[in-house]
Give the backbone structure.
Amino acid sequence: MNRVRAVAVPVAAALVLGAILLLATGTDPLAAYGAIVSGAFGPDGIGDTLAYAVPVAGMATALAIPLRAGMVNLGGEGQLVLGAISALAVGLYVPGPGPVKVALALLAGVLAGAAYAALAAVCENRLGVPLLISTLLLSYPAMSLAGYLVRFPLKDAGSSLPQSPQLPEGVRLPELGGVTTGIFLVLAVIAVHTVIDARTPAGFETKVTGWAPRFAAYAGIDRPKLTLRLLALSGGTAGLVGAIAVLGFPYRFIDGALITPQYTWIGLLAALLAGAGPLGTLVAAVFFAALTSGGFAMERATQVPRELTAVLQAVLIIFLAATSGVFKRKARRA
């Protein structure tokens, strides 16, 4: 109940502030919010919302895995891109039948992301580099490497853009109503994460570490080993999302295409909003995807810039942080 209240209050406050901003521009808030809802979930917009929600939900889950233990992985973009470029290389150059190559490409994405995130954990465990710094800074070499590969060794010879050739016909994830079937892989990961979080000793150790790190240490929980495991799982999930993205339309790697939509940072907002709970993270990811998708419809219907939805997201997180602190202080007094 406290968690619901801690989320409901900032959501309501953000909507009220958004309404004030809309009134200041001479726009009817109800019409604007109605345009967002209809644009996100109406017959013409639900496909776009789901298509955007797949990578956002995947990245939100990837970042929620270590966040449950109080560990912040800021290197999601690097792990996402590295997973995508690894899946692309397998899809283009590894011989074999199409379904086998798809499976190998997905596995390559998972392993690449997991190994790269584990490197950040090793930097903290062995070298004392804080996880926030190691994950964030390791993103840049990964993104630069991917940019180099699609400009030179993996460049599409028939294009002037920094992009790879398209994957062959048999090495692609099919689509259902414009949404990649990779959505089922993302949902499967969320289901497994939910079960582990709620029903296993590993999930309990993770939550205890997030609640009280000192108590977890006294209880004998090996934090370095836990950090390595959680970061590998987080990076592997991010790499899987990258592989799903490159195996879906447009079936190629385009430099910057996975970074510009800000899947990682919106996913982090969703994980923070849900307190890193698995199912709550999924709901928050769909919520943010709907805000982004519906913002285009709002702009068309009311002439209000869609950047207002980004303002709502930022304000929502600020209010969430503030109200969470208030509720925690009340709980301690009680």
